[in-house]
Specification:
The chain is of the alpha/beta class and about 350 residues long. It is built from eleven helices and twelve strands. It has two domains: about 180 residues, Isopropylmalate Dehydrogenase (3-Layer(aba) Sandwich); about 150 residues, Isopropylmalate Dehydrogenase. The structure holds 3-isopropylmalic acid (IPM) and manganese (II) ion.
Length: about 350
């Protein structure tokens, strides 16, 4: 097979971690016998400051011509908050209709979690975050701005189709990758996370479609429901109760950061923005870490994990599993997952994974 992959290294430490990810991709390709071509794009803060351009419409069309996109990080201290997030990251998610944000929360053996008494057996679930709707649609506005009568409205918007396609993806994911499918428990379980006791309109829709699709198409998948506030509590005190979770966009944004810290932090957490029928984008979720930029101090394992997810998604399962083992190998040699405390440089971590993968 041959793939064309768009690479957006972005800002801050994005380029450094993406380099390590690509190092590992090179090794994986040799092992698994596939080839690829890379197209690099310079979207991000530097380009915006130079040209005033975030992501031109022509780029959207170009990105669509690839098999996958690998993203580093977007954000710049000299650019007002929101400009790059909306102009690059959210624009790609929306324009390419990447309506799922897939965030595995898995504690790798040897990685420290801040949760006392919990290990890789307990912290092993996946969040399916809706990635196209909710409060992220940008509907609303401010009237009489700057006065005491100012009204601010930011609406949470979902259509039936958005809810149905997200739930269908989540059910299917639970069926294929749930704890039963992985030999780790008696059931594949999908938990809908919401706030049906307050957002009654919203969860009338979500709950109904959840039951409908579950009954009709996925009777083999066990269903649960939890309020999002309680979920935060359970994610800390009993993460083992989760298998696959499905959650709307804004709540998903919040709980996936909580999940990330329980799996060892932003140095290791990766995610995918998925369009099951289109082009998907994979990213370390850590951000630009301006403090560590150019210091060879940032942890690249999240970016390497993003490459692993990309390989899985491309169907290169063997290569993905090699990368996963390579990451575990690197972890066993590292002092910490925290930037500047790893006991080695960014490049050395990438080398460890790449060398492991190269040995097959
Ligand atoms: C994430 C990020 C983005 C989000 C920001 C950067 C727009 O926090 O991927 O979780 O809110 O979705
Ligand atoms: Mn977030």
């Amino acid at each position: 097979m041959s793939y064309s992959i768009a690479v957006i290294p972005g800002d801050g430490t994005g380029p450094e971690v993406v380099n390590e990810g690509l190092k590992v991709l090179t090794a994986a390709a040799v092992q698994a016998g596939f080839t690829y071509e890379l197209n690099r794009y310079d979207f991000g803060g530097e380009r915006y400051l130079r040209t005033g351009e975030t992501l031109p419409d022509s780029a959207v069309e170009e990105l669509k011509q690839h098999n996958a996109i690998l993203l580093g990080a977007i954000g710049h201290p000299d650019v007002p908050p929101g400009v790059l997030e909306q102009g690059v990251l959210l624009k790609i998610r929306f324009a390419l209709d990447q309506y799922i944000n897939l965030r595995p929360v898995r504690l790798i053996s040897g990685v420290e979690t801040p949760i006392k008494g919990k290990g890789p057996k307990e912290i092993d679930y996946c969040v399916v975050r809706e990635n196209s709707g909710g409060m992220y649609t940008g509907m609303g506005g401010n009237s009489r701005p700057g006065t005491k009568d100012e009204v601010a409205i930011q609406e949470m918007v979902y259509t039936y189709d958005q809810v149905a396609r997200c739930l269908r993806f989540a059910f299917d994911y639970a069926r294929k990758h749930g704890k039963k499918a992985r030999g780790l428990g008696p059931d594949n379980t999908l938990a809908l996370i919401g706030k049906s006791n307050v957002l009654t309109h919203m969860y009338k829709l979500w709950n109904r479609v959840f039951a409908e699709i579950g009954d009709q198409e996925f009777p083999d998948v066990k269903r649960e429901y939890y309020h999002v506030d309680a979920t935060c509590l359970y994610m800390v005190v009993s993460p083992e109760m989760f298998d696959v979770m499905v959650v709307e966009n804004m709540f998903g944004d919040i709980i996936t950061d909580l999940g990330a810290i329980t799996q060892g932090g932003l140095g290791v957490a990766a995610g995918g923005n998925i369009n099951p029928d289109g082009v998907s984008m994979f990213e370390p979720i850590g951000g630009t870490a301006p403090m560590w930029t150019g210091k060879n101090a940032i942890n690249p394992l999240a970016a390497i994990g993003a490459v692993q997810m990309m390989l899985e998604y491309l169907g290169e399962i063997e290569a993905a599993s090699l990368v996963e083992k390579g990451i575990a190998h690197a972890v066993s040699k590292m002092k910490s997952m925290t930037a500047n405390e790893m006991g080695m440089g960014t490049d050395a971590v990438g080398d460890l994974v790449a060398e492991f993968v190269a040995k097959g």
